[in-house]
């Protein structure tokens, strides 16, 4: 089963058992090599995942440096090619570009796209395949760029986190600073 996390909602499991090898943990496709991608990609590599970055410019010096920083057999390719390789696909691009990028990723059959409450059941079923996960370390964060959107999504996300034992992560930086990059 594959997961696609969208800008509307991002479900990240960042605390699998360290020391697992990539054959056991799989491939994480990180679509986007900006602030989020260059933070999360190396973290997934540390946890034993093979990371494939999807970029508009996979041969750029910036992306090559990120691949080198990530290590662990990381690579970079086009966004579509990365999405097709990933067992877990994270789309970490700014909201204005999200729809275009998501539509360019090709056939995403078999991947979970979370953008409404009913789809959380698929996440819960997927996580059951990993009994070693402490569900309190499954971090669920609503996506949005204004307080009103975040509040609306939190209304259905918070109860789901309580029900499943996941951790709700409010986006305080947007509440405090607004939709400002690097906050």
Q: What report would you give on this structure?
A:
- The chain is an alpha/beta fold and 183 residues long.
- The protein has a single domain, classed as Rossmann fold, CATH 3.40.50.
- The chain contains eight helices and nine strands.
- Strands 5-4-3-6-1-7 form a six-stranded parallel sheet, sandwiched between helices. Strands 2-8-9 form a three-stranded mixed sheet.
- Helix 3 links the parallel strand 4 (50-54) and strand 5.
- The radius of gyration is 16 Å and the shape is globular.
- Mean pLDDT is 78; it is low at 1-20.
SSE blueprint and pairings:
Layout: E1 2-5, E2 9-13, H1 22-25, E3 27-31, H2 35-46, E4 50-54, H3 61-70, E5 75-77, H4 79-85, E6 88-91, H5 95-103, E7 111-113, H6 120-127, E8 138-142, H7 147-164, E9 167-168, H8 172-177
Parallel strand pairs: 1-6, 1-7, 3-4, 3-6, 4-5, 8-9
Antiparallel strand pairs: 2-8
Task: Throw out a few tags for this protein.
183 residues; alpha/beta; Rossmann fold; 6-stranded parallel β-sheet; 3-stranded mixed β-sheet; 8 helices; 9 strands; 40% helix; 20% strand
Report a brief summary of the structure.
The chain is α/β, with parallel strands linked by helices and 183 residues long.
In one word, what is the shape? globular
- What ranges have pLDDT less than 50 throughout 5 or more consecutive residues? 1-20
Which percent band covers the strand fraction? Answer: 15-25%
N-to-C order of helices and strands: EEHEHEHEHEHEHEHEH
Figure out the total of helices.
Answer: 8
Overall mean confidence score, pLDDT: 78
Biggest pleated sheet: 6 strands, parallel
The beta-strand count equals: 9
CATH fold call = Rossmann fold
Gyration radius, rounded: 16 Å
What is the class in the CATH system? Answer: Alpha Beta
Query: Any idea what the CATH architecture is?
Result: 3-Layer(aba) Sandwich
Structural class: alpha/beta
Termini Cα gap: 33 Å
How many domain modules? Answer: 1
Strand order of the largest sheet: 5-4-3-6-1-7
Kindly report the name of the CATH homologous superfamily. Answer: NAD(P)-binding Rossmann-like Domain
Q: Approximately how much helix is present in the residues?
A: 40-55%
């Amino acid at each position: 089963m594959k997961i696609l996390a969208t800008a509307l909602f991002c479900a990240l499991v960042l605390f699998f058992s360290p020391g697992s090898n990539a054959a056991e943990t799989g491939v994480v496709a990180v679509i986007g090599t900006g602030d989020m991608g260059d933070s999360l990609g190396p973290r997934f590599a540390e946890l034993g995942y093979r990371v494939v970055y999807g970029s508009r410019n996979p041969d750029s010096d910036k992306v090559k440096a990120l691949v080198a920083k990530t290590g662990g057999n990381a690579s970079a390719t086009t966004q579509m090619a990365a999405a097709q390789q990933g067992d877990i696909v994270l789309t970490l691009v700014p909201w204005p570009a999200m729809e275009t990028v998501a539509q360019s990723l090709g056939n995403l059959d078999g991947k979970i796209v979370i953008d409404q409450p009913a789809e959380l059941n698929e996440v819960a079923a997927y996580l059951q395949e990993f009994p070693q996960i402490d569900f309190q370390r499954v971090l669920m964060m609503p996506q949005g760029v204004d307080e009103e959107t975040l509040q609306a999504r939190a209304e259905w996300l918070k109860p789901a986190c309580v029900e499943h034992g996941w951790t709700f992560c409010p986006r305080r930086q947007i509440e405090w600073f607004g939709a400002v990059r690097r906050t």
